[in-house]
Model the fold of this input.
Amino acid sequence: MASNQGNEQGKGGAGSSQKAGESGSGKGPAKRGFAAMNEEQQREIASKGGQAAHQKGTAHEFDSEEARRAGQKGGEAVSRNREHMAEIGRKGGESRQSAQRANESRGGTAARSGGTGRQGEKDEGEKS
Done:
């Protein structure tokens, strides 16, 4: 009977520790292993793996054409997401608009008019 109690305690102890981890964070089970490490430790281990692959000769190295194709595929995948592209466009428009407002508040309207052409003409007129 003592062995049964030990098994029950072992099961209960393990189960309760998992439940405590789950309920403590509210986001599921606690991270373990590689995922539980901080970013610096993960990078260090990953770096060692990459170095070992290069030494062994099994590491993959992209040539420029292969890298170009991979980037193109990624760009195509991102651009299929219309919501994402619309958000990018909105942010760009907002950024440009805020830059124009900042420029206007400093009194610099030449940049908005397309350059310093007009201002240069005034300077030449004033100099003569």
